[in-house]
Amino acid sequence: MCQLWELDVELMESLRFGPLPAHPDLDVAVALTRLLHEDFVARGTRHDERMNDEEVVLAVKAHRAVLERLGLELPQLPFRHHSGFYDYWRKNDMSGGGGWQARRECIEELLVLDLLQALEDLQEIEYEQRFKNGPRGAFKDLIFAAVGPKPKIVLRDAVNNDVEIVQNAENCLVYSDPLPAQGLTWRQMVTWWQTHHMPAAEEPEAADALYRRLYRSLDSLPEQTVLRTYCARYAEPDGFDLPALIPQVYLHYDPYTRKSGGHSGALHRQRMDFLLLAPDRSRIVTEVDGAHHYGTKNPPGRTAAPPTPPHPGCTRRWSPRTAACGWPAMRSTASAAGNSPGPTARSSSPTSSPSSSPATRSRHRSDGTALQ
To answer: Which positions ≥6 away from 135 have C-beta within 8 Å?
Structure first.
């Protein structure tokens, strides 16, 4: 039989003496647990295990070393390799009829059940730790998808940090419902749109209208491409439960203009291109940068050349201030996002609206039933 897989013996040896530079012990422990579980089950059922006895011994030693560093209880295996497992099941009446299921349950009980739960608990703690320094304060108002003149905002109540749009409020959308622990999903956005804008509409009709309204707020072809591409995932099974991609969101607001003389210059950019409100309070900014954000114009008389791709540390917007606010940012150049032609975004006429949206295709609820 052709051997298509072999164990990295040097890697197993190195794990016994310390963590890997590029892989946390927790991730390694999960991977080794699955490897040993799958190989022992394969030996006890189909007899198509991938490791020989010597490799199993190395993998078990590496597994134990990683678990010890994580402070977890070690599984008490009564055998050290496949041959030992074979002797064990023969001595414990796991041969003959029903033997496959008995041997599978034996491995799950000895190696998997309690250990996987302990590893999942550690992963949950690590996940919560990752976002403990996320954005401070409570979610209140999400102002987004403005079309036409930008809204004028005032601080109505400085004690409670209540803001109010005093001009051009009709040009933007404001989401002020409580933010659930799982973040803001597309289904929740559609429900909000139904409640406040289309109370008589069914979910497919409301989803289509909301998508088209969000699309109208974008006049950049790369941004339109990003929205169309991401929103296509809403048509997949359980797609309505993905985090909603929210365009043109106001994050910073500086009421002073440069003409007034009171402009501090601290807030060069007030809107973000896209925002995802994911679970556990994580807020992810996505920016699509045109060439003017990282390139310079050619001197007069010089032949035009494509701008040099930006260095991660040389982008002009967002990175320092958003990072300080606890907002992780993902950046993409316009060329990477794509400049494919698309409908005019800001026109409200049907002929220039997006021809296809998540609401005009077959969609699926979480129970798998299609919405036509």
So the answer is: 281, 283, 325, 326, 327
pLDDT of residue 215: 95
For every residue of the chain, which 3-state class applies, written as one string? CCCCCCCCHHHHHHHCCCCECCECHHHHHHHHHHHHHHHHHHHHCCCCCCCCHHHHHHHHHHHHHHHHHHCCCCCCCCCCCHHHHHHHHHHCCCCCCCHHHHHHHHHHHHHHHHHHHHHHHHHHHHHHHHCCCCCCCCCCCEEECCCCCCCEEEEEECCCCEEEEEECHHHCEEECCCCCCCCCEHHHHHHHHHHHCCCCCCHHHHHHHHHHHHHHCCCCHHHHHHHHHHHHHHHCCCHHHCECEEEEEECCCCCCCCCCCCCCCCCCCCEEEEEEECCCCCEEEEEEECHHHCCCCCCCCCCCCCCCCCCCCCCCCCHHHHHHCCCCEEEEEHHHHCCCCCCCCCCCCHHHCCCCCCCCCCEECCCCCEEC
- Range with the largest mean pLDDT of 106-120, 131-145, 299-313: 106-120
Query: Mean pLDDT of all residues in the chain?
Result: 75
Q: Decide: 257 and 263 in contact? Cβ < 8 Å.
A: yes
Segment 337-353, tens digit of pLDDT: 555 444 333 333 333 44
β-sheet bridge partners, residue 329: 285
Here the tokens at position 96 are 């003959």
**pLDDT tens figures, 9-64:** 999 999 999 999 888 899 999 999 989 989 999 998 988 888 999 999 999 999 99
- CB contact at 8 A, 200 and 171: no
What pLDDT shows up at residue 254?
A: 59
Report residue 176 as tokens: 């002020």
Residue with tokens 């048509």: 235
Cβ neighbours around 349 below 10 Å, total: 8
Q: In this predicted structure, what is the pLDDT of residue 29?
A: 92
Decide if pLDDT at 302 tops 80.
Answer: no
Query: Token pair for residue 43?
Result: 């030996």
Query: Which residues does 314 contact at the CB level (< 8 Å), separation at least 6?
Result: 294
d(CA 106, CA 2): 29
